[in-house]
Specification:
Number of strands: 2
Helix content: 55-70%
Order of helices and strands: HHHEHEH
Distance between the termini: 32 Å
Radius of gyration: 15 Å
Largest sheet: 2 strands, parallel
CATH topology: Rossmann fold
Number of domains: 1
Structural class: mainly alpha
Number of helices: 5
Shape: globular
Oligomer: single chain
CATH superfamily: Alpha/Beta hydrolase fold, catalytic domain
CATH class: Alpha Beta
Length: 110
């Protein structure tokens, strides 16, 4: 499971609780392959709206060591959203962000 992962993600997924949560999420996703297919379509095709037209405030959190979603793309999205407050976190990857900041993210949503 750790092949191709950067150190922050490898370390995060070695934590039993984070690994268990990731595997449960992956298992659930694989039980519904249509959802995975829809995700692939959404991220590879043009959207039916422009980011500049998004009016609600957006908080974008992104790990600078994320290999799954490039930092350059996150910065582009943040610049394109008119009311975006980006937070780029050094030494965090794709999975380590969730492992280390889930509580903070949930508090923002509550």
């Amino acid at each position: 499971m750790a092949m191709g992962l950067r150190d922050p993600d490898r370390v995060a997924l070695n934590e039993p609780a984070a690994r268990q949560a990731f595997l449960a999420s992956l298992n659930q996703a694989l039980r519904h392959p249509n959802g995975l297919a829809q995700d692939a379509v959404v991220i590879t095709r043009p959207w039916d709206f422009e980011l500049k037209d998004v009016s609600p405030p957006v908080q974008l959190w992104h790990g600078e060591a994320d290999r799954n979603a490039p930092l350059a793309l996150a910065r582009h999205i943040a610049r394109s959203l008119p009311h975006c407050s980006p937070r780029y976190i050094p030494n965090e990857g794709h999975f380590s962000m969730v492992a280390h900041y889930l509580g903070d993210l949930l508090r923002l949503l509550a």
